[in-house]
Every structure is written in C-alpha cells, then in structure tokens.
Amino acid sequence: MTEGSISRRTAWLAVGGLGLLLSGGYLVLALQLPFGQMEQPGAAVFPLVVAAVLALASLATLHEGWQTDPTLRIDLPVGGDRRRVLAIGGLLVGYVVLLPWLGQAICSLLFLVFALRALSEQPWPRVLVTAAALAAALYVLFVLLLKVPMPKGVLGF
Amino acid sequence: MGPVEGLLFGLKVIFEWHNLLAAFAGALVGTAVGVLPGLGPVAGIAIILPLTYSLSPTAGLIMMAGIFYGAMYGGSTTAILVNMPGETASVMTCIDGHQLTKKGRAGAVLFIVALGSFVGGTLAVVGVMLFAPQLAKFGILFGPAEFFAMTAGGLLLLTRISGGSLAAGLLPMALGLLLSTVGQEAVTAQNRFTFGFNDLTAGFALVALVVGIYGISEILAVIDSLERQVKPIPVKLREMLPTRTELQRSAAPFGRGTVVGFLFGLIPGPSATLASFASYRLEKAVSKHRDEVGRGAIEGVAGPETANNAAATSSLVPLLALGIPFAPITALMMSALLVHGIQPGPLLVAQHPEIFWGVIASMYIGNVILVILNVPLVSVWVSMLRIPQWIFLPLILMVAVIGAYSVHNSVLDLYVLCAMGAIGYVLRKFDFQLAPLVVGVVLGPLIEKHLREGLIMNRGEFSVFYESPIALSIWGLVVLVLVAGFSRRLFGRLFGGVAREA
Q: Is the ipTM beyond the 0.85 threshold?
C-alpha cells in the first residue's frame, strides 16, 4: 500500500454500494408516482425501469469490485496536488454560495485572487493585479458586451 | 434534392457571412480547445452552447461542428510536441508523434497531421453527403418500436463500446437515465423528483451537467498533476515541410484512416477515439513499415489522425438523419436544435434543408479553414501552451460557471455544476466512463417517449417492440455486438485500453 492511493476493490465496492442505496431510495420515490395501465402507462413506469437498471448496474459494480485483484491501487493526489484540488473545489463552492449576495464582479475577483494564489507561488501584488485584470475582462465580456444577467449582489454590480 | 443539388444549396447557405463567421469561429475555438489541456471538445462545446442560442440554428450548429472537428486538429499538436494529448482521440498520436519530434521532425509531422485531418475530414463529408439523406429516407419508415430499439439499443451498445468493463459503462448510463427523469415528464405533465424546487421542473440543465461532468472534472484532474507538466518545443514555419518519402509513406494511411474513421463514426460511442485506436492497430498490422510503428513512424501518426477527423465528421450522420445522438457532442448539438424548436430526425432534410445541407457544406469549408489556421499558424498555437496554467485554469473555471449560469440564470444550475464536477472527478479517478452518463441524460426522455407511445398505440402489447422486422434487426445487431463484447479476448484485441472520451 502506498500513501495517496486507494484499493481499486474498495473504491468499486463503495461506488456499487452507493449505487444500490440510490436505486433503493429512487425506487421508493418512483412507487409514489401514478403507474397507470399497460395501455396507458403513467409517470412511474420509466422510473421503475431505471431503478431496476441502476440496481443491476450497482450489483455489476459490486461484483466486478469483488473480483478485482486486491493489490490494484488507484492513485490519489497527495501533498501540494491534493491541497490544490481541495482549494479549487472549495473556492468554486464558495463562489456559488456567495454569488447571490456579493454579485459576479466581487465573487469573481475573490475567486481569482485565491485560485491564482493556490495554483502558484507568485507574490501577492502580482496575483492581485492579475486577478483584477481577469475579473475586469470577464465583467466587460460577459456582463457589459454579451449582456449575461449575472447577479449584482449588495454592491449593485 | 439530390446530393449535388443539396451540396450547392448548402454552399449557398455557408457563404452567407454569419454562417461563414460561425464556421471560422468554430474552427478557431475548436483548435484552441484541442490544443489546451484541461478543456476537451465536449466541455468546450458545452461552454459555448449558451452563446449559440443567440445565433440562428444553422449558424449555431455550424459553429458547434467546427469546434468538434477543430478540436481533433488541435488535440494532435500537444500530443506531438509535449507528449500530452489535447483530447483522447489524439492518445495514439503521442506514441509515434513524440518519437518523431525527438528526431527533429516535429514540424513535418504537424504538417502531415493537418493534411491527413483535411483528407479524412473532407472525404468523410462526401460519405455523409451521400449516406445521410438515404438513411433519413429509411428513417421515415421508423415508428416508436424502431426508435425505441435505436435509442435504447444504441445506449446499451455505447456502454460496451466506450471501453472499460461492463459496470464501468453501465453504472454511469443508469445514473444518466436517473437524472433524465427529474422534472416534468412529457406525456402527463407530472412533476417527478423535483422536491419542491421550481427550477427543477424543466429538469437538470444539460449545459451545467455536461460542463460539470467533463469540464470541471477535467480541470480538477489537470490541477492534481500540475507539477508534472512540460514545456513545448518551438516549431518554425520553415521546418514544416515534410520530405517526399514522408508524404509517400502517408498516402496509404490517409486512405485507410478515412475508411476506418468514417465507419467508426456511424456506431454509438466515442467514435473518434475508437477510430484512432483501430487505425493505429491497422497500420501496425498492414503498413509496409509496420516494424517501425511505435518507434517513430509517420504511418502511426498519419492513419490515426486521419481516422479521428473522419469519425468526427461521420458521427453527425445518426443525428442529422435519425435525430439520435450517440455521443456527448452530438447530444449537445441536438439540445441546441431543440432550444430553437427544431426536432432533429428523418424529416430534418425535408423541413430544414438549410440546416442539413448547410452543416454538411460547412464541413468542406471548415476543413479548408482549419488547414489555413493550423499549418501557417502552428507557432501561434504552440505559444498558447506557454500561457501559465495558474492563470489559464481559474479563468476557464470562471467562464464555465458564467456559461452554465447564463442558460437559465439559475444558481441551482451552479450547484448542479459543482456536484457533477465532483461526481465526474471521482468517476474519472475510478476508471468509469463519462460518455454513457451524458448520452443517458439526453436519450432518457426519448427512450421513455418511444416506450410509452409504443405501448399506447398498441394497447399495452409489449410484443410491438420486437415484432417489426426493422426493430428486430436492430435488436439482433445489438445482441450480436454485446455477445461479441463479452468475448474479452476478441474485444480486447480490437479496442484494448481505450480511454474515456473527452
């Protein structure tokens, strides 16, 4: 076993298990829809088929996971790589959460400042100038020229 | 309208300035998308998709087609120069392309690739021009049973042909079908799985979903190996002329690649990727210089690159002739047509000849534009690889977010984007296929529609789905391919190691 990896068997068994749980929950919800009759099928018919297909696919995943050589590993990012992936993912979620309150311009600037810094060792002044230039370019292109109605936020832009 | 009349009509359409501009913009963006790692053609088209809504349907589709085959051109540049494919259809090009670069032949190889892509793309258009209208005429005979067989059978085939194991394709396909059932269903307007969110009544936004699954996950995958990136080798225009021998040795692979690519484009799946793999195998088996293939032979580049462009072109046939998308990119193209109220299908050629023939003619012009863009301007594209990734990647993320938001102006779509990005990243890491998920989302409503229509029209008799000779033949073919697929040795020999379609 190496640091920054996961057993392929464990990964596939986890995905298959989650798929099976999802198909069960989905089936419960699908059963609450009108089934209709065979000559006039209702809204439940196709979801029931999908639930069955998902359950089968999950069982196939579990089976293949179980058959997998236990020594096979899937590499996961470690150290700086892992930090960067988590930072960018977290920043993206933060952007979406804050967008309705802060608006596109401020959110883009904040995202770019921290994302540029997370992906490089550049000094802060250079990061700030680059982020401001990119955020301004995005604002001009999408909001002013292409008229995309992005949220304005509390500051009004 | 016959093929020649149709082509002349299409040329009239493409030479309208806005359509010509769309073809140029598509080729330009497509080449950039192909060159730049971290943004494949699917994500590139998905990000551009909202912009095409403001264009006419013809111009929008021309631009999207341009991005598709433009990315096939551009993807080879990084494969040859830095041994890193810009998209998966260029994976095979890395092997011999980078070996030749090490021998100082980078410029000549790029020229051969541009020439091969032009030959493959242009000859495949002739095939599309002759074949698609005939298939559309045949498609008029199709009823719900036949369309059900085409959509459901095609999706099943896709799960097996996409590469990887059975579950690697089947699970994402089932997930895609599940996602397709969210929202108001078409027959009785019943809301399903919306959990009280009004924004979900129309279902998940395809753009947010595709940009998340392909774009965000791809960028995260690039970020998690950022330290291992390399600098490209500069290429000067005067170094681009191939020798007479290189041109002579490329002629036969151009021809073989075109045929292989055209045929692979017609089947469900990541056709461009599969075509380049099959073409590489073919060159290794039949080329006069087969012993050199794998160690820096021009045949190992000329064949696959011709094949992937031919496949990109012919993969439009099922969409244009039958209205059935068999790959994520054609699924996006279909959604663009639906936004304009145009139902792609066998009647498209009769009802909207300007779209059908305009797109076909645009591919002739687009291939010429691409040669002009790629041969003299190769140094410009190479210089794009020098844009620091710490600037480029966050910028692309912002463009992706704004693009996804702009479709419905909904923050919910952005949450979908983030969730799909995370799911896509995990699926990539664990070696699941992404294409069946996206195609499942698009084909899901069509499969349901044809299933329910078939049952309603035949008073609940399920036998309708296998009694028609056409439907029965389609199912027979599906079963044949699936059974052959289970023969691991045969399948592995042909497509072993095929990566996921980008």
A: yes
